[in-house]
Amino acid sequence: xxTYYNPEDxxxxxxxxxxxxxxxKKFSAWYGAVFEEGALSEREKSxxxxxxxxxxxxxxxxxxxxxxCLEKGSNLEQMTEAVHVASAIRGGASLVHxxxxxxxxxxxxx
Amino acid sequence: MxxxxxxxxxxxxNEQLKIINQPGDLPAFQxxxxxxxxxxxxxxxxxxxxxxxxxxCNQVCKHCHVDAGPDRKEIMARETMLHCxxxxxxxxxxxxxxxGGAPEMNPDFRWFVSEIKxxxxxxxxxxxxxxxxxxxxxxxxxxxAKNKVEVVSSLPYYSAxxxxxxxxxxxxxxxxxAIKKLNELGYGKEESELKFNLVFNPMGAFLPPKQxxxxxxxxxxxxxxxxxxxxxxxxITNLPISRFLDYLVESGNYEGYMNKLVSAxxxxxxxxxxxxxxxxxxxxxQIYDCDFNQMLEMSLLNGAPRNIxxxxxxxxxxxxxxxxxxxxxxxxGAGSSCGGVxx
Lengths: 110, 343
Known about the structure:
- The complex is a heterodimer.
- In chain A, 66% of the residues lie in helices and 0% in strands.
- By secondary structure, chain A is mostly helical.
- In chain A, helix 2 packs across helix 4.
- In chain A, 14% of the residues are buried.
- Chain B is of the alpha/beta class.
- Chain B has an eight-stranded mixed β-sheet.
- In chain B, a hairpin with a 5-residue loop joins strand 7 (278-281) and strand 8 (287-288).
- Chain B starts with 12 loop residues before the first helix and ends in a 12-residue tail after the last helix.
- The A-B interface holds A 41-43, 67, 70-73, 75-77 and B 157, 159, 162, 202, 204, 206-210, 213-214, 217.
């Protein structure tokens, strides 16, 4: 079935270098460095990436970082909590804009 | 074949080999190894004799490459054990690695261990832990301690739900009881000569985490939750054999998993694979390059002695090793062996 998202396309990510190899090289180097062990462990960084993947709703990233989380030693409970964190922020971000709605409402109504 | 096996057809070694070695896009392991530039995969000197003393086990684990279970009847006879002892006596082998099934379920297990110790060889037993608290085996922990046997045990995770999912209901709680017993005897304590190591293998179609990082997690969690200690954690990659192969095929993960293993091929790991210094003996005395080749019934190459009764140490050193596509499991990432990572 034709679909915009094909799992096989994830492996073709580096074909993005074809338009501009220099930018791809810089992105790859930076991306790799971001996920190296630092003040945060590789496992923690993968959990953050998984949460962000859900926030930006990227199926490629969800696929890649579910695998990465498992391969860094995280479990389903931890990954589920990470997704809840992303969801809470997304939900909270909508809800907190309700304050703007209230501000406008206050201004416009008697 | 185990009646409790997940895929009865795949309990047959030939059927497994048909899947593993089917022609496809993946490079042949042998060619991939030769591309490193060190020639064919060959043994160094044999230092470890790994002996499968039987396929009978009190557990039926989902990933088991031996297809072991309570209904398996293949048990090593004392006569074959005597051949193993003869082979050991006249060789430079220093370590005997006993595996199964549950090795403790072989009726001659205690005798065999005592005899190996008499000829001053180091003994490792791969214990599933639950057998150590099973009826009729309660004396085993003390026996192992008395004989200074190193214990290596699978504990797929430091929580019950994930462990039981792979190894069966109640396995985690029993494993914790067994570790407590081993710790009380001195096993796993820093100052003790009684070594106790744990094994992690992934619960699915993915590679294991970094051994060092996961060991820290295991040590912290087992200590904080249960006050338990152990020496080292070995992370092991699941090879596409037997029940795990069946799982890969059934779940549609086979192709993706093999691609992952091939993509992660690490020449440094390939040069340190355990078959280079290990010989594997089956319950019936047949000799293989490794435990995995044993399960796939892949014989030794080039006229090397094929049964332990014909064992000739010199003929096994520097031998060419029989390989297949399953070997990618030992060479992926940081590599994998019965002693954990190899690169």
